[in-house]
Amino acid sequence: MDDFECIRCGFCCHLDVKLTENDIQRLKAAGKKDFSKQTDHGIFLKHIGNHCIFLDPKKKMCKVYDSRPDICRRFPVHSDGEMSGKCQQDRRFGSRISRKIIGFIAMERENQLKPK
Ligand code: SF4
Q1: Dist CA 84 CA 108 (whole Å)
Q2: If you compute the radius of gyration of the chain from its CA atoms, what whole number of angstroms results?
Q3: Of 12, 49, 59, 96, which has the fewest CB atoms closer than 10 Å, so is most exposed?
Q4: Is the omega angle on the peptide bond into residue 115 within 30 degrees of 0, that is, cis?
């Protein structure tokens, strides 16, 4: 975990996020409404298209970062301390240097897309 560095690819915000009661209360306290859906497997964050409703897909940022669910705070580490195999960027680009380069390229691309 020491060498893990999030490159803000947004991949994990396309996965299903199961909510705890604490998560729901925290998001409600932050003024959020209509963000969850009941399924046979529990209560999950809703998606818009193929990503979480709280993901800003352009900035690849969480719009409720301070109130985000516990599982988002821990990702990509499971409760048993193991790294999730679902963090594709971290697995595919195994070295810290590769991740830094990719993060730099993503930042440059975003800067190019900004209106001048
Ligand atoms: S709550 Fe935030 S961190 Fe969690 S999946 Fe949604 S956008 Fe991503």
Answers
A1: 28
A2: 15
A3: 49
A4: no
87: Cα separation from own chain's centroid: 10
Over the stretch 56-109, which tens digit does the pLDDT of each residue have?
A: 988 889 999 999 999 888 877 766 666 666 665 555 444 444 545 555 555 665
Query: Atom 4 of ligand 1 has which residue's CA nearest to it?
Result: 72
Joined together, the tokens standing for residue 72 give 């988002």
CA proximity to 20, closest of 67, 76, 82: 67
Q: Nearest 10 degrees: CA dihedral of 93, 94, 100, 102?
A: 0
- Find out whether the beta carbon of 19 lies less than 6 Å from any atom of ligand 1: no
